Amino acid sequence: MGSYALRRLAGIVPTLFIIITVAFFLIRIAPGGPFDIERTLPAEIEANIKAAYNLDKPLVVQYVDYLGGVVTGDFGPSYKYNDFTVAELIAASFPVSLKLGASAMVIALLLGLVLGTVAALRQNSTLDHIVMTLAMTGIAVPNFVVAPLLALVFGVYLSLLPVAGWAQGGVADMVLPVTAMALPYVAYIARLTRGSMVEVLRSNFVRTARAKGLPLRRVLLRHALPAALLPVISFLGPATAGIITGSVVIEEIFQIPGMGRYFVQGALNRDYTLVMGVVIFYAVLILILNLLVDLLYAALDPKVRLK
Amino acid sequence: MTGGTETLEAAGKVRGRSLWQDAGRRLRRNRAAVGAVAVLGLIIIAAIIGPWFAGHPFDELYFDYVAVPPSVEGGFLFGTDAVGRDLFVRVLMGARISLAVALAATSVSLVIGVLWGAIAGYVGGRVDNLMMRFVDIMYSLPFMFFVIILMVVFGRNIVLMFLALGAVEWLTMARIVRGQTLSLKGREFIEAAVASGVTRPRIIARHIIPNLLGPVAVYITLTIPQVILVESFLSFLGLGVQEPLTSLGVLISEGAAEMETAPWMLIFPATVLAGMLFCFNFIGDGIRDALDPRDR
Question: What ipTM does this complex have?
Answer without folding.
Answer: 0.72
